[in-house]
Design brief:
181 residues, 3 helices, alpha+beta, globular
């Protein structure tokens, strides 16, 4: 199935905390179409973890919408918030959004690589990410390799911690492939 997810962090309810707004495009065309679903994940004020969602669909494809579906999006919000330059609001913000999609290299039962496009705050053109991180080597539920990594955790270096964040985001994205339209 071809789809993409667009992640943005913004204060949608005016409480001063950034919510994770996750838009899914079932045809993978985030540039020329409206999202098929928009889910908002809300962070717990006490611990900063995303634990409440609205707008959820049957992402696991089992025919109902329940707490399991909620958990896919709360986890996705938590994982995306690990990219400090995306989830930071204000002066520390580097990216306005993150667009995730599968590459075109799926074969047989093997999942395709995952492309994670990062868009600088000044960039509103979803066809031209400022940085693309590609996560490859899906095997037994995990992606193994990261190419083009950036400083995801904001510690001013690119290391295994950053790659781990991108591998987890790619795995979360791939786990949402069974959604019902």
């Amino acid at each position: 199935m071809s789809y993409s997810l667009l992640y943005e962090f913004r204060d949608t309810d005016g409480n001063g905390t950034a919510e994770a707004v996750i838009s899914r495009y079932n045809n993978a065309d985030a540039v020329n179409s409206l999202p098929d679903i928009v889910v908002t994940a809300y962070a717990n004020i006490a611990n900063g973890k995303y634990d409440t969602v609205s707008g959820v669909d049957d992402v696991e494809g089992d025919g109902d919408t329940d707490e399991d579906d909620d958990s896919y999006y709360t986890l996705a919000g938590d994982l995306a918030s690990a990219i400090v330059g995306l989830s930071t609001v204000g002066a520390g913000r580097l990216y306005s959004c993150m667009l995730i999609s599968f590459a075109d290299n799926a074969s047989g039962g093997k999942l395709a690589d995952v492309n994670i496009g990062l868009f600088n705050v000044a960039n509103s053109d979803l066809t031209r990410p400022d940085s693309v991180v590609t996560v490859t080597g899906y095997d037994k539920g995990l992606y193994k390799k990261v190419m083009g990594s950036t400083d995801a955790d904001g510690d001013n270096d690119i290391d295994l911690d950053d790659e781990f964040i991108f591998r987890k985001i790619a795995g979360s994205f791939a786990s949402m492939r069974d959604f019902k339209i």
